[in-house]
Amino acid sequence: MTYSITTSDRGWTDGNIGRNWLEQIFDPETKEKAGGKPRVLLLDGHSSHYTLAFIDYARANNIILLGYPAHCTHALQGLDVVCFAKMKEAWKQEIVTFEDEKMRKVSKSEFTFLWSRAYQSAFTPDTISAAFRATGVHPFSRETITEAQMKPSVTTSIKGCFPLPQPSPVRAVMASFNVNPPTAFAVSPSTHTQHHPAESDDDENLVMLTPSRRKRGLEIDPSLYTPSKRMRILYTALSSTSSGSFLVSKTPLTSSTPIAAPVLEAVPSLPHPDWSLAYGDPAATHKTRQTLQKENELLKTHLKRAHTLSRAQDGIIEGSSATMVVQNMHLRKMNGALYGKETEKASTRTLVIDSSKGQVYSDDASRDGLFEQEERKKALAAVKRSKADGRAAKKEALAKLEEEWKRMKIIHEEATRMWKADCDRLASEGVPKKNWPKGPIRPRKPKLPATLGAVIDEDDGDDEEEDEQ
Description:
Elements: H1 15-34, E1 39-43, H2 52-60, E2 63-67, H3 73-76, H4 78-102, H5 108-122, H6 125-134, H7 168-179, H8 184-187, E3 208-209, E4 219-220, H9 227-239, H10 245-248, H11 289-342, E5 359-360, H12 364-428, H13 450-453
Parallel strand pairs: 1-2
Antiparallel strand pairs: 2-5, 3-4
Helix pairs in contact: 1-2, 4-5, 4-6, 7-11
């Protein structure tokens, strides 16, 4: 059994490595056994497997190239299904055995030795045969791979949700945020003001300060707020906070943006009312006026305690509901970020080799199409080099014009100085001003020739790079 290790300048496998492997390893190892018959090479869709040199060599040596459909190597590729699974276990065992015996980590110089032992123990004839058999390649079997294994994956960026149903007010606020996205005015820093109740002795008629561009609040009855104004106030309040501003802005979500922690508050230590007073004394049939007055005062005292306790509990519930609303907004933004990742703009390149489905890489149509694609790449590269040369020539010409312009200004300044000196001399000699010489004409800044001025400074933005894995 032979195996080889190579390197690349970029750190990834490329077309040169693929061609060398086909020419120096696969072909010599299989040609004699094939006895002049066609050989089939099964490949995944990596770009190093269908370069023009790779395909030409395969066609010249009677090698048929078959490409797996995309996202199916978990079912069709024997290396993934059988061989690598056993290889991982063998490699782990080699490392554990080495570290137990040597009491140290594996060094780079010892890597290939241990790897070869794991490789030889994993890639046995029985394992390789099992890989072809498990994938239905040899013996060929259409029933080996089920439809469920080839079923397309479903969208993973589903809407995150809470594990329990939320109260109806929370759901109503969440729905309002969904149908009323923030406006540029609401999230603008110029509209951020402090939102706080105006001082009032009557807790039931608190007046809010309305934000304005002049940083000045108007006392308006909250009952007069329109739905759009309420949403604007909510968005403005969030925008004015450091931890909530990103929820209503277009700032992308990152892993460093923590989700708001849940607020778990306990009822503060307050005097509790005597709830038994609500039922009274059923045995008492007659009470004096003085007794009723005392009971009335006692009821008032404990009713105030109940009111204070109820308001504290309402505040805790309100804070918890607000936290759930903020967390829901975070989940919405996270969902948008995941959806954006899954729907990234597809490549606009024309791919002759369609790796999304099974294909014969070595047929005439694929080879001719790939040749035309390579020619287009070369033509595009030539156009870009020509534009780059033109930009370089334009830059050089501009530098020369700038130097020339500086020289012209120095000459003009010197001529102006001498003219002024002549005028001063003539004025001291009493020569009339009409007989003075005219001042030097200010030169015009030189311009580029029309051919250089038309050079495009921007790239076309249609660079094509090889896929890397």
